[in-house]
Amino acid sequence: MEYQHELLPYSHAPRGSLLVTSYWFFINHIYKKRWMSTLKKRTAVLLRLNLVTIALATAFPSKSESIDERIPQVVKASHYQQDIDVSEYWKSEKLDGIRALWTGKMLVTQNGNPIYAPDWFIEKLPPIRFEGELWAGRGNFHLVQQTVLDDIPNDAAWKKIDLMLFDMPDSAGDYQKRYYNILAWVSQLDVQHVKYIEHTPIKTEKELFSQLNSVSEKLGEGLMLRKVTSRYQAGRSNDLLKLKKHQDAEALVIGYKSGTGKYKGKMGSILVRTGEGVEFYIGSGFTDEMRLLPPTLGSTVTYRYNGYTQNGVPKFARYLRERPNR
Predict the structure, then answer these.
(1) Contact 72, 233 (CB under 8 A)
(2) Given CA atoms 277, 278, 283, 284 in this order, what sign does their dihedral have?
(3) What is the pLDDT averaged over residues 109-132?
(4) Which residue among 59, 136, 177, 251 is least crowded, i.e. fewest CB within 10 A of its CB?
């Protein structure tokens, strides 16, 4: 109900005497006193409600202050180009794992989702931020994916995984300084499963590609190049580069084709659609177990290919992995 003070119109009062006029002023005085009393009560109630609201708002963090949004955006890699001055960079092997951020309290994915690691895995990590890769060696991405994204940690599986550190988002200075800070912390922690990704200077492009061939022969992913003078700046730039012998891309799973021959009764290939709308089948890169339980419809998969056909279809496409949802 809205409270308003309405004066009794003078025209409604009986006329003809001073007494009548006095009566009109007296009645309206009573109306005004009652209205003012009600207004004061409502104001007091609203003031108390506002104070409670303010108290609650300051007692609990808002969504904008959630732990996910306090995590810095990560540095993203661009593709290597021939005109890059390699002497300005350090190289390291590109690990086939899951990128992880240590917030100082917990491990999270690069999207800010929690990673449920066992207590023993994180108990000695300091209250400062690190960035790294959860890795179980070359060719073991599926082990890492199944283990790291499980809400209930499996101790036996986690013991096969290392946290390979490569950056400190909050550390001041260029990458060389941040890298040496990581080395010092790893040495001080002296924990078997917490390590660092070794970075070394690059003298020539010939040396760089020789290292790439060596890593590829060992079934490695490729190389990462970090500009030594760069400060930590989120986003994609030439401060961080990736170099591979093969091209990788992602596509959406939209269908299946049944297998024939030895794959009869199993999935033969998956039908995918790229971000550009190109549709094609991927039939290689799957184990027998994967063909029984193929990537789900609507999921995003990573595939490897070598160039394009005249119609823009990736050539020699082969399945690598299903992208985690978290």
Answers:
(1) no
(2) negative
(3) 94
(4) 59
Active-site residue, from 91, 94, 124, 262: 94
Phi, psi torsion values for 288, nearest 5 degrees: -60, -35
| Contact of 109 with 68, CB cutoff 8 Å | no
b/e burial code for range 158-194 (CB count within 10 A of at least 16 → b): beebbbbbbbbbebeeebbebbebbeebbeeeebebb
The DSSP code sequence of 285-311 is S--HHHHHSPPPTT-EEEEEE-SB-TT
| 8 Å CB contact between 107 and 132 | no
Other CB atoms within 10 Å distance of the CB of residue 130: 26
Catalytic annotation on 94? Answer: yes
204: amino acid identity, one letter: T
For residue 264, pLDDT over 50 is answered with yes
Rounded Cα–Cα distance for residues 163 and 59 (Å): 35
The yes-or-no verdict on residue 243 having pLDDT over 60 is: yes
pLDDT at 2 over 90: no
pTM over 0.90: no
Which bin fits 14, alpha (ψ -120 to 50), beta or left (φ > 0)? beta
What does the mean pLDDT of the chain come to? 82
Question: HSE-up of 259 (CA within 13 Å, CB side)?
Answer: 19
User: In whole angstroms, what is the distance from residue 72 CA to residue 6 CA?
Assistant: 59
Number of neighbouring beta carbons within 10 Å of residue 117? 22
